[in-house]
UniProtKB/TrEMBL annotation:
NADP(+) binds at residues 203, 225. Pfam families: Shikimate_dh_N. Shikimate binds at residues 14-16, 59, 84, 99, 205, 232. Homodimer. GO terms for molecular function: shikimate 3-dehydrogenase (NADP+) activity. This is Shikimate dehydrogenase (NADP(+)). It catalyses: shikimate + NADP(+) = 3-dehydroshikimate + NADPH + H(+).
Length: 260
């Protein structure tokens, strides 16, 4: 029997256990995936070992703080500075980032994108800015404050110095809209941004957030984070099993979990 879990705070809303447990059952694997609520990220490795986990996923707010506690890092995770997947390999715990490639798979249907604006500057924004930049897409980041100015290489902006441009894609990586009606930035600024954009993506899933509602009303093609969640989970699941399964088969199994 193999054991897997999601670490984060909050975790009660997450359907990751449903995704992974359906895949485990469908592929005939003896394993179980659960949730572990944490007060502080420093407990992750201790609990990973305590519960004899083979693999785990990391969600907010620990995607960056766990970095230094891993024995090894995948090259993409190291470059991004944020991880969402842990795998035990030969007694060592290795960190990966499947958010970044999962996101690119999720936005493929939008078609060609030359320029993107990312709202927020947390661990998810790090992953998305990295993968977009790697794929030759021009990046701007808009954050409430300059506390995350390590994004300076991606045209980091705060409200005080931001000037609206034309964007193919606007992405909300903040938690605004997860539980309430908050917006990721001032509504007047947001409407000006969206009026010069084609597509809107929110990493929050299974909910049309106020951000997406406004974008939809303004005629943009919109998408929530369901497919990003799906694809990052598919890639993470396969890492748990040394990539021995076919991604398309895992995807088919996990996609059915959204209908339950």
């Amino acid at each position: 029997m193999k054991y897997f879990a999601l670490f984060g705070n909050p975790v009660s809303h997450s359907i990751s256990p449903r995704l992974h447990n359906i895949a485990l059952q469908g592929l005939g694997q003896r394993g179980v995936y659960g949730r572990i609520l944490l007060e502080q990220g420093g407990d992750i490795i201790t609990k990973f070992k305590k519960y004899n986990l083979t693999g785990a996923n990391i969600t907010i707010p620990f995607k960056e703080s766990i970095l230094a506690d891993c024995d090894e890092l995948d090259s993409i995770a190291a470059d991004i500075g944020s991880i969402n997947t842990l795998v035990s390999k030969k007694g060592k715990i290795k960190g990966y980032n499947t958010d970044a490639p999962g996101f690119m798979m999720a936005i493929a249907e939008f078609g060609k994108i030359d320029k993107a604006l990312i709202l927020g500057a947390g661990g998810t924004a790090k992953a998305l800015s990295y993968i977009l930049h790697t794929n030759g897409i021009e990046i701007e980041i808009l954050n409430r404050s300059d506390k995350r100015a390590e994004f300076i290489n991606y045209n980091f902006n705060t409200y005080s110095n931001f000037k609206v441009s034309n964007y193919d894609l606007v992405i909300n990586t903040t938690s605004a809209g997860l539980c309430g009606d908050d917006l990721p930035c001032d509504e007047i600024v947001l409407r000006e941004i969206l009026s010069n954009s084609k597509f809107a993506f929110d990493v929050i899933y299974n909910r049309q957030t106020p951000f997406l509602r406004i974008a939809n009303d303004m005629g943009l093609k919109i998408k929530d984070g369901k497919d990003m969640l799906l694809y990052q989970a598919v890639l993470a699941f396969n890492l748990f099993y040394d990539n021995k399964f076919d991604d398309s088969k895992i995807t088919k199994l996990m996609r059915g979990a959204f209908e339950l």
